[in-house]
Specification:
- There is one protein chain.
- The chain is an alpha/beta fold.
- The protein has one domain: D-Maltodextrin-Binding Protein, domain 2.
- The chain contains 11 helices and 9 strands.
- α6 links the parallel β5 and β6.
């Protein structure tokens, strides 16, 4: 019995020692970050790089565990999870955030960002971009960074090489008054349809066209049921890096800075990966026989002039005084950057 008692004592001691080792090696500030995209897409690869760098730069005290492909729920569920603290973070497209923060719907306004990527980044990182991130503070989120995730382009089964061509055509949009006004401004109609129904709607002529980034058009095979594409890059698809406020406030300030700086540092690589995906997709679309027309600078300016007032009004009707302040800041910054 004495021998057995010694074994138990030794076993318990070993458990205590091992437990101490495990505790010593465990990250002090662990965060689960969920998102929708697959492990092969730029967003996930960027997040994995951020996680690696942050762990190194905080000596292992901050550890991000990345969950791709909706493992933690759909985007609405992940956004709510961040608000309620059931998960610590998510990276969400602006399109999924308007119901949580109407101010972010400004990203639905067409031609909001300059085509020039460096100028777009200046706008994103300047006063306008910072104010947009801060608008999440009162909505149960800590937004720390913005990552680009492609630009939308127009496609149709009818010619769309001139602005006049759009008149009378119908386009599928997400359920957004701003996007409906975008098409109304050029004489077209817009129909809000679920994304999963879009291919069939194009195939059966329920709508003439749609708008999406090139890699989405290629991945969803919309080029099989569309004849014309204009590389308009009119709509910016932006991702927002969101943390639960309580988790964020638990971090030391120097760790907060490391995390923000790392997300900003990794962003150009994410954008470059996304840009390459657009180029590859365009080649597939061209080979399929779709007629591709670049949107010329003069047409871009004319289209923006027609669309901006109507879409701005639709945005302000929803975003109120806070939206008005953001629009004012945007217009000042845009005028300064795009000279």
């Amino acid at each position: 019995m004495k021998f057995f008692g010694r074994i138990v004592t030794v076993a318990l001691a070993l458990c205590m020692v091992m437990g101490g080792v495990i505790s010593a090696n465990a990250a002090k500030y662990e965060a689960r970050i969920g998102h929708l995209e697959s492990p092969l897409q730029p967003r996930h690869q960027g997040l994995e790089k951020v996680a690696k760098l942050v762990k190194e730069r905080t000596n292992g005290e901050v550890e991000f565990k990345i969950f791709p492909s909706s493992q933690l729920g759909n985007q609405r569920q992940m956004n709510e999870g961040v608000q309620f603290g059931t998960i610590e973070g998510t990276v969400s497209a602006a399109a999924f955030l308007g119901g949580f923060n109407p101010v972010v719907s400004i990203m639905d306004i067409p031609f909001l960002l300059p085509v020039d990527r460096a100028k777009a980044q200046e706008l994103r990182q300047g006063k306008f971009g910072k104010a947009l991130l801060k608008s999440f503070d009162s909505r149960g989120f800590k937004a720390i960074a913005t990552w680009p995730n492609g630009r939308k382009n127009f496609t149709s089964n009818k010619p769309i090489s001139t602005i006049a061509d759009y008149k009378g055509q119908s386009f599928r949009v997400m359920d957004s008054k701003i996007l409906i006004e975008q098409f109304a401004a050029i004489g077209a109609s817009a129909i809000a349809l679920p994304f999963g129904e879009l291919y069939t709607a194009l195939q059966n002529g329920v709508v003439d066209g749609e708008e999406n980034p090139l890699d989405t058009i290629q991945r969803m095979k919309f080029y099989e049921v569309q004849k014309y594409l204009v590389t308009s890059e009119h709509g910016a698809m932006e991702d927002y890096v969101l943390f639960n406020p309580s988790y964020w406030e638990s971090l030391p300030e120097n760790y907060q800075k490391i995390i923000v700086d790392t997300f900003i540092e990794v962003m150009p690589g994410v954008e470059a990966h996304k840009e390459q995906a657009q180029k590859d997709a365009l080649e597939v679309i061209k080979k399929a026989g779709v007629q591709v027309t670049p949107l010329q600078a003069a047409d871009r300016a004319a289209m923006r002039e027609l669309m901006y007032p109507k879409t701005k009004a639709a945005y302000l009707a929803r975003a109120g005084a806070q939206g008005q302040e953001l629009i004012k800041l945007y217009e000042e910054e845009y005028a300064r950057i795009v000279k």
